C-alpha cells in the first residue's frame, strides 16, 4: 500500500481509496462495499445507529470486528424484538464477550428500539424520517459534524433517543449514504455518487 497524500492511498490492487481504510485490511472491504452507499432498510439503519453509539470512545475497528457478535446478541437488530428486552436480558448481554459490555449503551439500544417503533408509527419507516437529513454537499469534507447532523442529533434526543450526539449522527450519515464523504480521487466516490443518483428516497 502506498500513501498518495493525507486523503488517499493506493491499495495492492492499484486502486486509490480513502486513506482512513488503510489502517487495517478489514476496513477495505467495508469501505469498498458498504461505506457511503445509500441504505433504506430500517433494520440496517437501526443497526448502524446502534453500532455508532457503541463505537463512541472506541475505534471502529473494535466494533467492526464484533459486528457479527452484536447481530447475534441483539436479534439481528430487529427493533421490535429488542424493545421487549428486560433486566434479565440486559444482565445476559453484560456477560456476552462478543459485544462491548457497557450497561449504558446496552440500555440505550433497548430504549432506542422503543423510540424506533414510535417513529415508524409516525413516519411509516425509519428511512422516511432519517432521509429527511440527506446532505448533498458537493465536495467531501473532513468534518466530524455538520449542521444537518447537529439537527438530526437534536431531534432524535428530543424524541427520547440516547447516545446519538452530533458526531455519532454524522458518522451514521456518512456510512449510510446520506452524505458522500469519499475523498476526491477515491475510486468508490463515483460509485457512491451514481448509487445516490439512482436511489429512490423513501
TrEMBL record:
Pfam families: Adenine_glyco. Coiled coil: none annotated. It comes from the Bacteria. This is DNA-3-methyladenine glycosylase I. InterPro entries: Adenine_glyco (IPR005019), DNA-3mA_glycosylase (IPR052891), DNA_glycosylase (IPR011257).
